[in-house]
Each structure stands twice: as structure tokens, then as C-alpha cells.
């Protein structure tokens, strides 16, 4: 038997991911685009409901307050997504709520000056205003780093090797949002997981009028089927005598969103009152803004690959971070109870549907704004049980993580140096945040526990984030360990042409600003 040829046992590296039906600037038919946009909107609801559902009760808020926060968050998400796709990186990314802000916000909730307020509603309003003030101040970090192009300068220290652990852990680092939540109601979570995988992968060749309908709309179809199944279980009394936690996670009528939602409500800035400002609160929130910046950097690079685009040049990435800072400023002004970051699950859906069209994401932003104003209709979709979303996360977070691992194709993984950096950064990216989570759950405070609360919030927020730990470790090792003689092993010859806008002719197609704005903001 003849020995196999080298091309038969290896695959050449590819700048753009193959196999996508529509890339960033190509669009499906209008009907398909609208349905795909609605699918992205449904997926974005998970985080938009989960975060307020956890934080609002801690603040003393009622179901009415929770609905208003969810509506406001969706409204601002829609605005931020439009701004990012039009003027930011221009990648097809949904800008959603961020879990990175949970640590400083919970710290504000437990501030002694707020906890001593006896009236729950007054405590809720005062806490909301304190969070708003901290977020408004902290947003300046991303605005300055982005629009001054300082983040573009920092990104020059990134290489394909250094980005692998960061992008991978943008997905893998959210493992606790996946199957642990599915386990809260396995009778609907596991069927959802099986159905979604079956439709999106095993039945993807099923076509109706030359459209792979099951693959393209797997999320909508499987969610509808399992949601109806969950409603049937609820109506039949299957959960009548089950524990409260099971009922909360499984029943379709326990969210209390539909009954509490107004028919029409347009969110507006400062509706909770004038923000209050505290230096300690703002400093802790700045750590969350930095974490959001790092996580979004990894997510933007994953989105560029799943949209079949080239990696965003440094100045485009920095421009996107600047607009994301504007988004966090809007979060603070409107009072959304969380900051902004790239929605990782929606990035994964680009790969699952094989549609990386920018227009689809802009349509989804329209749905977010529209349904946030029509309260009852938005609340109907928002009442989908969390385990249904978590089942989809198990697939989509993993898909984003694998995109990060795909950057290894541009590096030399026969190098002990590269194996060391990749392995250590990935392991510490998992291990350090897990230590912080376990310590906090037992001691009810983070490992950093001093008299300076702002300092504790800052460090605890940083080390709660897997991508942030991975970036610190990977970039430090990659730029200090035999870096002079390892440019080729790190993938720098391939990476270099994407550092500047004019380095590759395709950048103009993907990242040029609309309305001929490049005349006023020339690319670098």
C-alpha cells in the first residue's frame, strides 16, 4: 500500500471559514431574513430575563419592577446592536447583557447604606440609581480605550496563539450556564437538547423548496415543540406537588411576566430617577467594564470567523469597543441593571444556521426594540422556561469555543513552547475562576476580602472571568517566553496582514463604514 501524500493527511489553513451559506455582506431572502432575525431575538431573551430575574428580588423589587427592567434591557440591547452593526465593528453580533457585572452589582446591593432602607420599593429605586451612577462613570473606560485607539495598540501584543485560550474560554467559561441549568428541569431540558441537535445536524439535509428548513430554523422549531410540551405538563398538573424550585424552573406560568407587563411601555432615560455616584461603586464597576472588553474582543474574533470574514483589523476592533462603551453608558442612563457585551449564544447561532449575515442581526435588533415596547407580547416569549435556553447554550457555547481552537491551525503545535502556553492558559482560565466561585459560595465573599470594598470588587470581578484570566496568562507568556525566535510558530506571519485596514483587500468589503463615513474617519 502506497504511503499517503502530505495533502491527504493534513488540511491547509484557511483565512475564512468555509461551508457558510451567507457571509457578513450577503443576505437571504427578506422572509428568511425576518424569521432568522426573530430567532436571534428569541435566543437573546434568555440572558435578558435571567439577569433581572436574579438581581431585582435581591434589591427589593417586585414582579412589576422585574418586567420593566427586562423591557428596558431589551430596548437598549436593540439600540446597541444597531449601533455596533452600523458604526462599530460592523460584525453580525448581538450586544446583550453581561454576567461580568454581577459581582460589583451584588456588592452595591449589599452596601450597608442601602440595606438599612426598610421600604423595599424605595430600596430598589435607590439601589438602581447607585448601579446607574457606577455604570455611567465606568463606561468611560471603554469609550476612552476604544475611540483613542489605545485598545488597537494593546491588540498588537495579541497573536493567534495568544487568542486561542481567550476565544475558547469565551464559550467554555460559560459551562455553568449550560447543563447545570438543564438539570433543574431535565424533563424539558434534555428533550430540547436532543431535538435541537437532531434538527440542526442530523436532519440538516431536509429541504423544503430548496431551503434547509430544519437546520436553518432548528432553534425556533425545537423551542416551539418543547415549550408546548412544557405547557402541557403545567396544565395537566404534573408539577402541583413538586418543590418550589422545580416549579419555578419547569412551569410556564411561574415567571409572572405576562400578568405584570403593561400593554405598551416605551423605556426612557432616567425613568428610575437621577443616578447617584459613589467612587467605590464606580471603581468596582470598572473591573466589570474591563472584563466585558476582553470577553467581547474574543467574541468579535469568533464572530468574524463564523461570518466568513477576515479577523477585524486593530482599529476596527478598537472602534467597536468605543461604541460598546457608548452602549454601557446607555445601560447606565436607562437603568438596565447590567452592562453590555457581545452575546456569545448569538455568535454560536451564526455557525449553527450557517448564516452570518449582518442584516439578520439588524432585523433582530428591530424585534428587540418593537417587543420591548409591546409589553404583553414580549412577556409571552420571555416566559419560556430557562432550561430550554440552557439546552441550546450547551451546543452554541461549545461551538464558539471550537472556533477559538480553530486558530491553532495558524500556529505550530509541534512546538513545546506553544503547547506549554496553550495548556497553562486554558487550565488556569478554568481553574482560577472555579476557585473564586467555590470560595464565594462557601464564605459568602470572594477570596479578596479587605476593608477596601472597591479593591475587593475589582480583583474578584477580574478573576471570576475565564477569558480575562486566560488573556492575562496567554499574552504574558506569549510575549515573554522566547518570543523573538518564535514569530512563525506563534502564527504572526499570517496575523500580520490583518493588523491594518489596508493589509488585506477584503477588509474594505467587510468593515467599511456606511453612508461614506470613511471620508471623515479614514481607516488606519
From TrEMBL:
Q: Alphabetically list the UniProt keywords.
A: Membrane, Transmembrane, Transmembrane helix
Q: Does the record carry Transmembrane helix as a key word?
A: yes
- Highest taxon of the lineage: Eukaryota
Keyword Transcription applies: no
Where it mainly occurs, coarsely classed, is membrane
Annotated transmembrane regions: 38-58, 91-110, 130-150, 157-175, 181-199, 211-230, 360-382, 388-407, 419-436, 458-477
Where is it located? Membrane
Family, according to the entry, reads as follows:
Belongs to the nucleobase:cation symporter-2 (NCS2) (TC 2.A.40) family.
Q: What is this protein called?
A: Nucleobase-ascorbate transporter 2
Organism whose genome encodes this protein? Phaseolus coccineus (Scarlet runner bean)
The opening ranks of the lineage are:
Eukaryota, Viridiplantae, Streptophyta, Embryophyta, Tracheophyta
Amino acid at each position: 500500500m502506497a504511503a499517503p501524500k502530505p495533502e491527504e493527511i493534513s488540511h491547509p489553513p484557511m483565512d475564512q471559514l468555509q461551508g457558510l451559506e451567507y457571509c457578513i455582506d450577503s443576505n437571504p431572502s427578506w422572509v428568511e431574513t425576518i424569521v432568522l432575525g426573530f430567532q436571534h431575538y428569541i435566543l437573546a431573551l434568555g440572558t435578558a430575563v435571567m439577569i433581572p430575574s436574579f438581581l431585582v428580588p435581591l434589591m427589593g423589587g417586585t414582579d412589576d419592577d422585574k418586567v420593566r427592567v427586562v423591557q428596558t434591557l431589551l430596548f437598549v440591547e436593540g439600540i446597541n446592536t444597531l449601533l455596533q452593526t452600523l458604526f462599530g465593528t460592523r460584525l453580525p453580533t448581538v450586544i446583550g447583557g453581561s454576567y461580568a457585572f454581577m459581582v460589583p452589582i451584588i456588592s452595591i446591593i449589599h452596601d450597608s447604606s442601602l440595606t438599612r432602607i426598610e421600604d423595599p420599593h424605595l430600596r430598589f429605586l435607590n439601589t438602581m440609581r447607585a448601579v446607574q451612577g457606577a455604570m455611567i462613570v465606568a463606561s468611560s473606560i471603554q469609550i476612552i480605550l476604544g475611540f483613542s485607539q489605545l485598545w488597537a495598540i494593546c491588540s498588537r501584543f495579541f497573536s493567534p496563539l495568544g487568542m486561542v485560550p481567550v476565544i475558547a474560554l469565551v464559550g467554555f467559561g460559560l459551562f455553568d450556564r449550560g447543563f447545570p441549568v438543564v438539570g433543574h428541569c431535565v424533563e424539558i431540558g434534555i428533550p430540547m437538547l436532543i431535538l435541537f441537535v437532531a434538527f440542526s445536524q442530523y436532519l440538516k439535509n431536509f429541504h423544503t423548496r430548496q431551503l434547509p428548513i430544519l437546520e436553518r430554523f432548528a432553534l425556533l422549531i425545537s423551542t416551539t415543540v418543547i415549550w408546548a410540551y412544557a405547557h402541557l405538563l403545567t396544565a395537566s398538573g404534573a408539577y402541583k406537588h413538586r418543590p418550589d424550585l422545580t416549579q419555578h424552573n419547569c412551569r410556564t406560568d411561574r415567571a409572572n411576566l405576562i400578568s405584570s407587563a403593561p400593554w405598551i411601555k416605551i423605556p426612557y432615560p432616567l425613568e428610575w430617577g437621577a443616578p447617584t455616584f459613589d467612587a467605590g461603586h464606580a471603581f468596582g464597576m470598572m473591573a466589570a467594564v474591563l472584563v466585558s472588553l476582553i470577553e467581547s474582543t474574543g467574541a468579535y474574533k469568533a464572530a468574524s470567523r463564523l461570518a466568513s470574514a477576515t479577523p477585524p483589523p486593530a482599529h476596527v476592533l478598537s472602534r467597536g469597543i468605543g461604541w460598546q462603551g457608548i452602549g454601557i453608558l446607555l445601560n447606565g442612563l436607562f437603568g438596565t441593571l447590567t452592562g453590555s457585551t457581545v452575546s456569545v449564544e448569538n455568535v454560536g447561532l451564526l455557525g449553527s444556521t450557517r448564516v452570518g449575515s449582518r442584516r439578520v442581526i439588524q432585523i433582530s435588533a428591530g424585534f428587540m426594540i418593537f417587543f420591548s415596547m409591546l409589553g404583553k407580547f414580549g412577556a409571552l416569549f420571555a416566559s419560556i422556561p430557562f432550561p430550554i435556553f440552557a439546552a441550546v447554550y450547551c451546543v452554541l457555547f461549545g461551538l464558539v469555543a471550537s472556533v477559538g481552537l480553530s486558530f491553532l491551525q495558524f500556529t505550530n503545535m509541534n512546538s513545546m513552547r506553544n503547547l506549554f502556553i496553550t495548556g497553562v492558559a486554558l487550565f488556569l482560565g478554568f481553574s482560577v475562576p472555579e476557585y473564586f466561585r467555590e470560595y464565594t459560595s462557601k464564605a459568602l465573599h470572594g477570596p479578596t476580602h479587605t476593608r477596601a470594598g472597591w479593591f475587593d470588587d475589582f480583583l474578584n470581578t477580574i478573576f471570576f472571568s475565564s477569558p480575562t484570566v486566560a488573556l492575562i496568562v496567554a499574552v504574558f507568556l506569549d510575549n515573554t517566553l522566547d518570543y523573538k525566535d518564535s514569530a512563525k510558530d506563534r502564527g504572526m506571519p499570517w496575523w500580520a496582514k490583518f493588523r491594518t485596514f489596508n493589509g488585506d483587500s477584503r477588509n474594505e468589503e467587510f468593515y467599511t463604514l456606511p453612508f461614506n463615513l470613511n471620508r471623515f474617519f479614514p481607516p488606519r
